[in-house]
Amino acid sequence: MDSNLAYLRESLSNHLEDHPICQRIYHKLETKQYKDEDEFVNDLEDNEATILNLILQYELDYAKNEQDEERLQQLNGVYERLLV
């Protein structure tokens, strides 16, 4: 699995109880073999992309506050694909 997607999966695991859409996104990451972030983002439905955008904003802020540069870079790789 792409390392950016692995970080995303780990971050999503913190939100599985919050929303069923998070569970669906997580399930996709668990069951499908995406070659990269572009393939993953292209597989998202509109509502999934919207929720993921919100979660990533939260997770990026958290990584900044914790000064976790590795996590910040990995998650930002997915976030940038969502914005395209």
What tags apply to this protein structure?
84 residues; mainly alpha; 75% helix
Structure description:
The protein is mainly alpha-helical. It has one domain (about 5-84). The chain is about 75% helix and about 0% strand. It is built from 5 helices and no strands. The two termini are about 20 Å apart.
Fold blueprint:
Layout (H helix, E strand, L loop, with lengths): L2 H10 L7 H12 L5 H6 L3 H20 L3 H15 L1
Helix pairs in contact: 1-2, 1-5, 2-4, 4-5
Protein name: Sporulation-specific SASP protein
Pfam family, one: CsgA
Biggest sheet overview: none
Strand content: under 5%
What is the SS-derived class?
mainly alpha
What count of helical segments does DSSP give?
A: 5
Shape: globular
Q: Tally the structural domains.
A: 1
State the helicity in percent bands.
Answer: over 70%
Give the ordered list of helices and strands: HHHHH
The counted number of beta strands is 0
Q: Gyration radius, to the nearest Å?
A: 12 Å
Pfam families: CsgA (PF17334)
Organism: Halalkalibacter wakoensis JCM 9140
Protein name: Sporulation-specific SASP protein
